[in-house]
Fold these 4 entries.
Entry 1:
Amino acid sequence: MTRSGTDEPVDAPDRDRRHPDESVTVDAGRRLRFVPARIFSSAAHAPRARRPTDWLLLLGSLIGLVLVTFPAPGPTGLDTSLAAFIDSLPGLFGWFWEICYDLLVGWAVILLVLPLVRPGRRRLFVDLLLAGVVVTALAVLAGEVAGTEWTSSLKALFASQPPAVYVEMRVAIAVAVVVTASPHLARPLRFVGRGVVTVGAIAGVALGIALPIGLVAAFLVGFLAASVVHLLLGSPGGRLTPDQVELALSDLDVDVDEIEDAPLQPSGVALMTATTAEGSRVLVKVYGRDAWDGQFLASAWSSLWTKGETPTLGAGRLQQVEHEAFVTLLAERSGVCVMPIITAGIAAEGDALLVSDATARPLATLDAGEVSDDLLTQFWAAAATLHGLGVAHGRVDGYRLVVREDGTAALADFAAAQVAAGHAALMRDRAQLMVSTALVVGTERAVSAAADALGTDGLVEVLPFLQPAVLDRATRHAVREQSWDMGALRKAAADWAGVEQPQLEKLRRVTWRSAVGVVLIGVIAYTLIAMFAGVDVQQLVDELKSADMVWLCLALFMSPTIQVAQAFSTMGASVQAVRFGAVLMLEYAIQFVALAVPSSAARVALEIRFFERFGIAAGGAASIGVVDSVSGFFVQVMLILAITLSGLASLNLGSSGSSSALSSSSSGGGHPVIVVALVLLVLGVIVAVAVPRYRAMIKDAAPRYRAALRNQASEASTALGVLRRPTKVFLMLGGNLVAQTIQAIVLGICLKAFGHEATLAQLILINTFVSLFAGFMPVPGGMGVAEAGYTAGLEAIGVPSAAAMSTAIAFRLVTFYLPPIWGGGAMAWLRRHEYV
């Protein structure tokens, strides 16, 4: 073994060591040591956990399996084309494909036998057996749903000749075994398994044993079975054992002893403390090679849900270590008191390590009496020097604020630091510092120290950022255990500065009165629609009774994914980084509030309150909603123009409901449902004028927001800066485009439930046109107007009136009337986590 990055051999440690999970002993004093290749990612006794990412894999597999069931069992036109392409590949003969296909079984057998011949691995064998049973049952069930007899599915498991069967059983079992075993195996073996499965699946198509659609289903079923096993039995995280860390450190010429887990364990990385040969304590941060998948998934999950966590999706192990070491050295060179870096690098096995001095006490472990005012001043001075470099620390909490042995204050752990940070990032640092010190010394001393360091103007500048949304999870929970809350700290700071604390946007509450008003509007609207469409109540009831409930349930199941796409659009409209999970809850909460007030007003009010929690002033927060809405309007207009000008679909609104959707001719005469749309438009205006609450809202909204934008022009211009960032624009346009497409698919599923079909272009055109039209209505959610529009649009493509109106009702049920059920839960989540 050689030192990382050199060809020089590494001296062996002074005592004998046994490599974890291996039987090779290294004698002391030997110049070179032999360490067998790592087979397993973790020790046999390593703890297991049920990870949130397993739930994501489960949900994604279920959604994909449901979607692929529609064209199943095949063959589709795409299946035929792909099979012909693979068959035409030059130089690849039948024997080659046969070997690749047989490797599927061979690799699965190897993975099954491996735990039996390794000590302490019998539990993995049980996992793999369970995965095989679960995937077989799921594959047979999926085949039955698609029309494949269960006997045919089981026969295909032992057959190596055509015909192709949906689902491809061998691939499904191989995928389940490989994915189930992956967290237990070293990274090279994971890649081998993935390669074998991929090539074997292609070989199945080349041999005519499988269709592409059957392979897609097989992969989804395999993922589903593996996620079920991981959720039932847990999986290891690929963390190195203390002995493995000691060996890795020796590759970096660091001799340590007494290695143990550190009290603080952030996601995606292992922290350990150790004692050097000189007797000093060091902190070892380990990015394990075999924990790479866990690091990526943990980072992805934290970037979606966790406040205060910085995503590292694009950085490898070495890049993360280099980033932290670089920022730490940059800060130290500029005079910031830090915990010095001892060494950093890649060990021979590929694990990245960063070793820093650990001879300090975290601020969170000290009592108020141990923290002097001079120490608080030093913390603020360190932060000021760091910010003078344009660097934001990112995690200024009680464990990153430390007191060294000589009694001086220092900053530790620059893993989340941002170089060339923006103003908001620097303000978040200051807010976190004020909260972290207040947790130890109380609000009065914390505010006093902040005022002395920042001055009155600087303290006022931080006030909007004293919100729970800028804190990490641990700090937020620590605040909840105090006798004071963030509001009290913000008030204390405002009182010290002699200013009024910033007022948050008032939210409009959903009341029983508003709900009853919505019901009355709905009854009137549906009565008018049925009357003008020529559909009596009994006919409508009969049509609804005849609906296929499986398709309606599928539509309801897909409905929440619309807000997932809209969440990305909102993230794109925000110039400040926000977490996907919180924004998704915001989108669901808007569905809840939209029952009481028009959706545009609900969105604006709720988004302003939401973004104010991140320190964005009302003007900038309002601009975010405006930018998001305008981008949605732009996408809708572009969709309508693209579809109509390309001739993919058109709406013959002058027809009686039996004409072709693709006909561009007009039969003359007005359509009855067009009349009802106009009547409902007039009705909406009357309601808006007659109801005092709506009238006052419309009268006051425009001047209020115009004044806010005028008075806070700088914040608004900052928010509009997203239009100069291609990534943000892509998120806005892409999110709105995907949302419109998913809505059209849900509309098509509802139409399918009543025995009719339409092309995707037709559905997108109908949905986009109606969404655009109903969005201007001063009625909650465009109630009545949207139903009339969908009915008219569906009739225009040849759907009978009763089925068109039933489809419109079902579609609105799953996308507007039922979402407030989980929207109420989302609103409660936002309030519980103090986002609104």
Entry 2:
Amino acid sequence: MLDALRHRGPDDEGVHVAQGVALGMRRLAIVDPVGGAQPFYSEDRQIVAVVNGEIYNHKELRRRLERRGHRFAGGSDAEVVVHLYEETGPSFAAELAGMYAVALYDAARRTLVLARDPLGIKPLLWRRLGREVAFASELRALLAVGERPDLNLAALDRYLLYRTAVGEETIVEGIRRVPPGAVQIVHADGRTEHLRPARPAEPWRGGDLEAAADELDRRLRAAVERHLQGDQPIGVLLSGGIDSGLVLHYAAAALGSQLRAYTAGFQGFGVEGEEFGPTAATAAAYAVPLTTVELGPDDAERHLLALNFDIDEPNGDPTALPLRAIAERAAEDVPVVLSGEGADELFAGYPGYDEPLVVERFSRLVPRPLRAALARSPLPGRGLARRSLTELRHRYLGVGMSWLDAERQGLYLPEVRAYLAAHRPGAIAEAAFSAAEASGHDWLGAMLQVDRAVWLADEALLKLDRLTMSFGLEARVPYLDQSVVALADALPWAHKVAPGQSKRVLREVARRHLPPAAAQRPKRGFPSPISALLAGPLRSFAYDALTDSTARGRGLFDPVAVQAALERQNGRPGQGGRRVYVLLALELWLRQVYDRSGSGRQDARDYGS
């Protein structure tokens, strides 16, 4: 299992073995590189822990624990975990501020405690193997022990819909995720308890947009400074928009010329070269050196062959291509990078968050009978009329999805279709929307909660963690600092969106600090022209991978339906290319990870299709 995770921790390896328990750790040394070896032990060695991630409030916790008489072996931030557990038991996670996956063994109680940070920044999976329980940061480590499990067809169905297998179940039967914010206790007799420790939130007194921007400016600056901890150089993943631009601003104020910035983009595929101009201007405004990774067709194929192995689970989001390229390049210079991930899910940055406001205004102006008539007509505005006659949850839940219900049913072979009909896979996004409404969230709060529950942890953050850690590079996300999250949750929707405007409060902060071109720039991220690539230089590669004997022999998809999907693409860029990419990413993961599991090892970086 440790061999399978060597890429995550190239600096050190630590093991604890005792009666009934074995803990292992591959270490990426950031804080206290010399003295921070793991596992960590309590003074009486009855409690032992391994920790992946960073604890940003470790200095305050250490001072308090030392006053209580605890003795520390080194200066690592993560060593506070064992001593905090001694004081508070399983509720220890409520006091941790940071990103972490913790596995702790309490010898006196004979319990294994698994804990994950509240937003799911760091991954943590577990699996039952008879009377044993195994855990790991990646699927491949759990596939390196025991027999190869079956595919989880319900999770595969969700993958085709959401581009990733969201929820606690992974795409492999019997391997599950510890949910974000959960503490899972496994007893020696096999019983499992689940806790969700309440975490204190820093209060906000309220106020107008200007006051909210003042408070966000203060909290975000402090969050970035906390995320700069460590004894190693740091970089920033820079897209040229306001999210990463503000991270660069605060980091540059603290580190100056020591900071590095990295960006990437494709050339010649509809994502033009001038995209690097605003990014370069932002970096230049703070005198931060910018490394630009320019990608072409050959680079796309190389990264495509590698990234589903690196992500460790199938991922159908093509933005993974430039993200992998940046991670590969940044890892040559720095072991830590800061990312702007999470800002959109907190402050309503995605296109469409203002759609309910537009629909509401239209509905007030146009009577329902006229809207119904317009919806049935070929006239301009019929789409808006149709949306005004549809409940918000149904309008919103289709955004970002890939293979919708009827399309997926036509894709499967009859036996798979029959299995899914009998087992009824859960509608994760629908359930998340209902839960948000039941908790009292308004319309925007419900949309943001769905994005946080469905896509943030199991798609965006998982992809970021795996693609950076595959190169021994740690990615940190200051926007998901608990103080920033608490403020975002407390803000009224009017501070976040207005018709035609997203992230209002964040844009107000950006207006104060960023160059005008960056502060006013619409959301961009790291785009990937996947439809153009699949219609051109990657067309033959995708066709061969999805139609050869290996793909046909899996017993999952109807070859005629797959062929039809490829024909609809047929050299023409469009939405069909994104659906083909979802199938291609799945097939590559099956070949590179799943087909090779059950052999006892999962550490070979062989990207052959």
Entry 3:
Amino acid sequence: MLTLPADYNLELLATSVVLLDAKLNVCALNLSAENLLGISASRARGHPLDALLDESNEWYPLLHQALSENYPMVRRAISLTTRSDQQKTVDITISPVTTKVGSHSLLLELNIVDRLQAISRDESEWQAQASLKEIMKGVAHEVKNPLGGIRGAAQLLSAELPDPALQEYTDIIISEVDRLHKLVDRMLGPRERLEPHPTNIHEVTEHVRQLIEAEAEGALHIERDYDPSLPDFLADAGQLTQALLNLVRNAWQACGAGGLITLRTRVFRQFTVGGNRHKLVCALQVADDGPGVPDELMPRLFLPMVTGNAQGTGLGLSIAQRIANQHGGLIQVKSVPGDTCFTLLLPMEMQHAPD
């Protein structure tokens, strides 16, 4: 049997930990468990576990068995449903413990399988973005050099042409070269360094909302679901405005006139982003009720020039992801028909990626 030290601190564990008494009432839980159950420790303490989780959770018998047999148990890929109908898959370790007063209790350690997979996927995405950045730098260098030569040659040719009417063709060459030059710059994303200042994320979301509503001229409905407890944190408000504008415009293109977009903010505690664990992470979500992202586009969605819109350049999401990466964060996406959600994750302690 496991005996907890008197100075045992549940907050030191990265997994979700819940301590139950012999009647399966909640005695304590750490920050990760608060996120998992969607309730604060102060509100959960003293309540039965089945008041916080749906009655259908299949592992309740395991808890009673562990108590009666005084023996630890481990189960993989167990379904967990909260009272708010959020369904998650967890690996669970059930350990009988003896507290300092000698009473019998259970220590539950819950690892969200879905989240572990997401962490691995996010880390791969982070590394892929870093590799893509280096590739794009090389491509830009190789493209810009001949573009400069072509433009210079067209200007010299224009000055030598005897017929001024022929300058129309050299003007086209110069114009197209300039367009390609700008396109390459946009593919590289924002080049200026971040200028982080204390930022209220809701000032950013409200500014973007007003801009999009003015553009839509009443043809779009935007709902707001903000967490007012979010504190200010260091960020480049101008860059975040650009990233959010790209995400909202993408949602608008998806849902079209008469569509619904939801702007939502939340705070995640002890959350892993790109392989790094952070105490606080701001989650800014842009959801739309459009037809969803085609399955074949999902793996390539944040690559430059990838788009499902015939009129688009395919750079908006790539640039938004680049800005998120500069802030030490990233953008995730989940999509089914009628519900597509892009989540911009921003660590609230500034650890931006190198330029």
Entry 4:
Amino acid sequence: MSVERVARARPSALPRVVRPLDGKIVLLGTVAVIVAYLALVPVATMIFASLQAGFLTNEAHWSLDNYVRTFGNASFYRLLLNSLIYGLGVALVAVTLGFSLAFLYTRTNAPFRTFGMLTALIPLIIPGILNTVAWLFLLSPRIGIINAVTQAVFGGLRPFNAYSLPGMIFIQALHVTPTAFIMAAAAYTAMDPSLEEAAVASGCTPLAAFRRITLGLARPAIFAAGLLVFIQTIAGFEVPQLVGVPAGIYVFVSEIYAKLQAFPPDYGGAASVGFVVLVIAGAGVMFSHRLSRGGRYATVTGKAFRARRLDLGRWRWLAGLAIVGFFVVAVALPLAILIWSSLLPSYEAPSLAALRHFTLTNYEGVWNYPLIKHALINSVITSVSAGALTTALTAIVAYVTLKSRIRGIWLLDLLASLPIAVPSILMGIGILFWYLVAPLPIHLYGTLALLVIGFVTIGIPYGMRYMNAGMIQIKDELEEAATASGASWLATFRRIYVPLLMPSILAAFLTTMIVAFREISAAIFLYSQGSEVVSIAIFDLWSNGQYPAIAALGTIMVGVLIVLVTIVQRLGGRIGLAAAE
């Protein structure tokens, strides 16, 4: 009799178990498809366009003509050489500065180490186009303030020229050095100092121990940072367009932009050059992955250790001055020149006489200039939307990749990480091409939605970094207990995972929002009249020579972003403490 009751009860009990499971599978499957769509479609579309002669015309057909024209042009090889020198030069300078500064910050007793962290964080907030404009104010051979100072002191000497390949490398390197610093700080902090101590105890000099042990163990991080900086550099739009083009120095980005701005646009030529960039970036990723494979660089074991700071002795103050000096050059000077220029009716070098001309007219004009007001509204809409969507997507993807036991789930993790290895300019081109040719029921070109799609695609790897770190700390037993209590998966995710992940959620939202707010490499190809964002407005103002207006807008942008970072950090700390309690 009891067996019959169990048999009768089973059909009615099954729906209560299957319905939540089905809903979970549908949701997770949908998110997986969205991530795959965002990551693969732009790249596939760009490759498709490169293999089409007469792309976007009625006579379009399969052909290798675009590659024949590209590789058959002698100027392409000069373009390739410029791009490699520019990218590798920036990577070398940024990695050297970033890893040196990070070593002083994490492993020595140098004073003023707080300035090292500020040097790493503040440039991440400053949009690249503002950093470029600021350094043109400082190093331009005609209006550069530093050249004006050297001319006054040394009698006509104006030694610096931003409009050169070394000038491009210098400006871009200062902006991406924080990326290398953050990766270096993580690597140095994870190293067991007993290895260096053992080398010194065996008779090795501290310098030799640093060269053989510290730098040897940091080699994967050095190559990974160099690769990331290299990809960011060859994909960056600001320095090549604002500095390189006026100097007649063309790299991949400026060439692609020129082809798309031509009349008629050379879509196939732009796509073929973009494919070359993709191949170079992909080769770098494969090399970095092969270098870091295996355990020969592993130093973190089950044995606890505490990092020991190296006593620099009498050299500690010199190290402290180096930290402060880099802060002044990389952070203080660009911000100071932006503020100074924003308070003058027209650009002029600092002087006592110029103080009499101080005015807030530029700040008032920001709100009265139609393009700026419209661009600010569009930037807020697109950055907040992209931050929210990216955070939601990456939270679910992190759950799937870390908490599920689905076969082949590594592929979803790979797809979520793919955009970091694909230059954002290529993502912008691929998205542009796809929404120009795809037979979709909704026309997205020229809308803010297209910008949001681009920003979400670029922001997914950044969101995954925070979500994975938070998700991996949550024990599976919490979900098991909720399921045993009858809670659905959606209720479990909402009531358990979301509160515990809140610090990671806020960090991911803030980071992806800032990435979207400052992005220009993809936005320059995705916007149209009426959908301009702040980075595009700044580029337009620079093209029209409205330098004080740029400085005022940039100062407001940096101030707003710093306030947002502070608010979210404090809010995240409080919520995290509340969740822990």
